[in-house]
Each structure stands twice: as C-alpha cells, then as structure tokens.
Amino acid sequence: MKTYIAILKGINVGGHKKIMMADLRKMLCEISYIGEVNTYIQSGNIVFKASEENTDVLENLIQQKIADHYGFEVSTIVLSKENLSSIIDSNPYAEEEIKRLHCCFFKTDPILENRQKLETFDASPDAFTVGNSCMYICCATERYSKSNINNSVAEKILKIECTTRNWKTCTKLLEMLENL
Predict the structure, then answer these.
(1) What residues contact residue 157 under an 8 Å CB cut-off, 6+ apart?
(2) Where is the secretion signal located (predicted)?
(3) Is the pLDDT of residue 145 over 90?
(4) Residue in 42, 37, 16, 17 with CA at minimum distance from that of residue 26
(5) What is the dihedral of CA 48, 52, 53, 59, to 10 degrees?
(6) How far is 29 from 167, CA to CA, in rounded Å?
(7) Which residue of 84, 90, 124, 162 has the smallest Cβ count within 10 Å?
(8) pLDDT tens digits for 155-179?
(9) Which residues lie closer than 8 Å to 67 by C-beta, 6 or more apart?
(10) Is the pTM of this model over 0.90?
C-alpha cells in the first residue's frame, strides 16, 4: 500500500460544510481501498494508505463518500507522498519565513493560456511562482487574508479548482506521511 494525502476544499469554514474529523476518518476507512486514515486539524487534511494507486479514482471515491454521507460535494485533491515531497523540495521561497508561505494546489492542470495569464499577474508586494501542479505564494506580510494573490484569484485566472494550505500544514502532512 502506498501513502497519500487528500486535501478537501472549503470544509469547516464559517460554519459551512461542517465535517467532524473523527467521522471522516471512520467513514473513509469504510472504503475498501483505503486504510490507516489520519487527519490534521479541522480543515480537511487527510493522510492515508491505499491499495489503489490512481489518484483520480481515490479523489472520486472520497468525494462520493462525503456526498453520500453529508449531502454536499467537496472538491478533493489527492497527492502521493512522492508528489508532496517534490512540491516541498521545489519551493522557491524555502529561505523565507514559514508564516509567509502558502501552497495553492491545482486539482487539474491549467491550460497553457491561463497559466501564462497567471504567471503575468501583478500580485505585488506579494510574490508567487507557478509550479507543475501548484502555486507557491510568499506573502509580503504574515497575512494571507490580505494577500493580492490567493486561491480565489488562482481559480478565476486558471479556470480550475484549487485549494490552499499554509506551509506549516504542508510540511506537517509530509511528516505524517513519512511516519505512516
């Protein structure tokens, strides 16, 4: 079995799409391909092992399980340990203060035209770099909520679903994957 993370978009934010992590862990263990489920904080960060290696299949299984149980859809991105490790190793802002760093994960690959539009977006004084399956964000301050580049901007320009995590969460998820 390989190790994976699943990151859920927009749960437990402002009282919307409430999912208890204990319920989520139990529910995901009911999926035959998935085992050893752990979660990190309440924002939908899941570390697990799976015998299924196709991340699209895993995404669909998790999304369907949540929809069946809760009655609402939650966009889900699944990455292997190797994918997340590569994303972390490729961070162009690794020397910056961790509180200023975020990673916006892409659910699908953006088309080239939209990617080029994002790459030329002026987010100053914030900095960002578009990677293969994500966007690295370095905020001018520690306030992502005040950043000129964020998840909503990325989704609007790229025309794909994205979800963002702070860098502390990214590194914690990799640590959890390595210890699973």
Answers:
(1) 114, 117, 118, 121
(2) none
(3) no
(4) 37
(5) -70
(6) 27
(7) 124
(8) 999 999 999 999 999 999 999 999 9
(9) 73, 74
(10) yes
